[in-house]
Specification:
Layout lengths: L2 E4 L5 H12 L3 E6 L3 H15 L5 E5 L5 H15 L4 E4 L14 H29 L2 E6 L2 H5 L5 H21 L4 E8 L5 H4 L3 H8 L10 H11 L11 E4 L6
Helix pairs in contact: 1-2, 1-9, 3-4, 4-6
The structure holds nicotinamide-adenine-dinucleotide.
Length: 246
């Protein structure tokens, strides 16, 4: 059975991706932040995944820490046997205009959204090399493509995710490992639920489809990118934004 490892999968888009890949027939490794609350949520996600007749195992790790990623990847290999697909989804925001943003707020977002990708790739790519097969999908953002006021930290981290995606695609293409990114726009999740109502209404004016996306609409594109149907697609960024920018 093929195995998919999804980071930050205890809620939101990550949880939805885990369930979709379980439905597709993957055994799933559900990474969650090491807290009681995230562990409990991840267990619920695992139960829903198991309903599709696959194995689902939860792994606590702060993906901004190299040592924790190393341990997690070892544990996934031991318990599930391989890592065929990696979805780097974990992410945070600490939104503020540049003038008000602290150094800590900048560094925190870079550590979780950007450095985590390096940490995971360092540990998972050697596994995929041995297998002579692998599918990597990084969750970027439209902010990484176009920038966004109040998100200099987040935009920088997601811009880096896009350039890291292309670099890995170039380095590992000959090893039969593909690496793509998706760039969601406004998606209904706990991350966007906290935004002010008037901001949300204003942002929708720029969306051609005039609605928020659902996490399932991100998961379905990830499902394609980890499947055999995308075997000749690598180094690409697919925007999932209802036509936010054209
Ligand atoms: P969310 O806040 O609901 O989920 C983020 C997940 O990441 C949570 O489960 C959280 O516990 C986990 N996480 C945070 N820090 C972690 C760490 N250090 N180690 C392990 N896990 C950690 O947000 P979401 O909207 O589901 O976002 C998922 C991804 O999609 C993020 O990378 C986000 O930047 C991206 N994204 C979201 C939107 C949107 O509109 N919601 C748009 C573009 C991109």
């Amino acid at each position: 059975m093929a195995v998919a490892l999804i980071t930050g999968a205890s809620q939101g888009i990550g949880a939805c991706i885990a369930k979709r890949l379980a439905k597709d027939g993957f055994d799933v490794a559900i990474n969650h932040f090491p807290s009681e609350e995230s562990a409990a949520k991840a267990l619920e996600v695992a139960k829903e995944c198991e309903a599709f007749g696959v194995k689902a195992v939860c792994f606590a790790a702060d993906v901004s820490k190299m040592a924790e990623c190393e341990e997690m990847v070892k544990a996934v290999k031991e318990q599930l046997g391989s890592i065929d697909a990696l979805v780097n989804n974990a992410g945070i925001t600490r939104d503020k205009l540049l003038a008000r943003m602290s150094e800590d707020e900048y560094d925190a977002v870079i550590a979780v959204n950007q450095k985590s990708i390096f940490n995971m790739l360092k540990n998972v790519c050697p596994v995929m090399m041995k297998q002579k097969h692998g599918r990597i999908v990084n969750i970027a953002s439209v902010a990484g493509l176009y920038g966004n006021p109040g998100q200099i930290n987040y935009s920088a981290s997601k811009g880096a995710v896009i350039s890291m995606t292309k670099t890995v695609a170039k380095e590992y293409g000959r090893k039969n490992i593909t690496c793509n990114a998706v760039a969601p726009g406004f998606i209904h999740t706990p991350m966007t639920d906290v935004l002010a109502e008037d901001y949300k209404t204003k942002m929708l004016e720029a969306v051609a489809m005039r609605r928020y996306g659902e996490p399932e609409e991100v998961a379905s594109v990830v499902s394609f990118l980890v499947s055999e149907d995308s075997s000749y697609v690598t180094g690409q960024v697919i925007e999932i934004s209802g036509g936010l920018s054209m």
